[in-house]
Amino acid sequence: MEDGFSSYSSLYDTSSLLQFCNDDSASAASSMEVTDRIASLEQRVQMQEDEIQLLKSALADVVRRLNHSEEQQAMGSRRGPTKADHLCWISILGC
Length: 95
What we know:
By secondary structure, the chain is mainly α. The protein has four helices and no strands. α3 runs antiparallel to α4.
C-alpha cells in the first residue's frame, strides 16, 4: 500500500511552492509584512483597551448620577418637590 502523500504528488505541481519557500527575498518581505501587521494589531488592541477604560469610567459616572437622583427622588417623595430638587436635576442633566 502506498502512503497517502505520494498519491497526491501527481495531482499538484509542487515545484512553484518549493521555489517560493526557498526564495529568501520573498520570505523576508513576507516576514516584514507579518511584523508590520502584528504591530498594527497591537496598536489597535491598545486603542480598544483605552476606549474600554473610558467607557467604564463613563458608565461608573452614569451609575453614580443615577444613584444620586434616585436618592433625591426618594427624599423628595417624602417631603414633596423643592427648588433644590429642580436644581439637582439641572446639574444631573447638565443643563
